[in-house]
Amino acid sequence: MNRLTAVSGAGAGYSPRDEREPGRYRLTMKTAFVLGGGGRWGAVEVGMLKALEEAGVRPDLIVGTSIGAFNGSVVAADTGPGAIRRLTDLWNQIAGARLLSSGAAQRLKNLAFMRPAIHSSDELREMLESVHGRDATIEDLEIPFQCVASSIENAAEHWFTEGPLVEALLASSAIPVLLAPVEIGGEHFYDGGIVNSIPIDRAIELGATTVFALQVGRVEVPLRPPGRLHEAALLSFEIARRHRFRRAMRDFADDVELHLLPSGNPLGFDDRRQLRWRDTTGTSELINSAYLASSAYLKEALRQ
Description:
This protein is of the alpha/beta class. The protein is about 35% helix and about 15% strand. Strands 1, 2, 3, 4, 5, 6, 7, 8 and 9 form a nine-stranded mixed beta sheet that branches.
């Protein structure tokens, strides 16, 4: 029986495409965790993962976008009981380290010389290598894992299913303007959120029959016309992001069980917190509110 809790529109009727890309996990995947993008608000996914762990839900497949790809990669690397605790510790370290904290002078220099990004990705690369190791590959992960990035040359989503893990995570997280595109094999990539912010359709294409979608709270708030100049830019990106997400929510099969976990942190496109993308204060509160909201949801949704 199809089961769905949706915060912004849903439906049924998805039939997987016959021509879809063959997946090496297609015949074995049952339960998938889908982790969406969202920058510093990715902390809410840690609370959701903690709730899932306590509810006894274990993934057979993890797919992610941007910060969701990072969160998912940590869980995929360790199937032991300490994975969520390790991820929580990592987020507390990130909050203390203030990633992408290059000084105002350097940022102004980057703008003055018309460089393609305000920040260097060196700090992010160093952090990812400290978590996974410099030579880690996607194939090394204990749980099958994929992440998405946006190909500039092909103007399409690109799924990393094998190869160097850190490079794939950097590509999936390369937010335009803030970070330069990542070059891999002669192709350049930007943040995966541009093309597939919450990739539930990918999990279904790979054969998942139960999908837990982790999102940072944006889709829980209705859109409205912009009231300020900066809101117009945020709104245009939000429309593109939600269009893909709503289509995926509408077009999934009757035999797929889909759970859209609540964030406990509704985040409107016009929320001024979105402009303070480097402000990592409140990380613990974000994790805890998502944990409480998702725990309550799972207690009801998984009740036999």
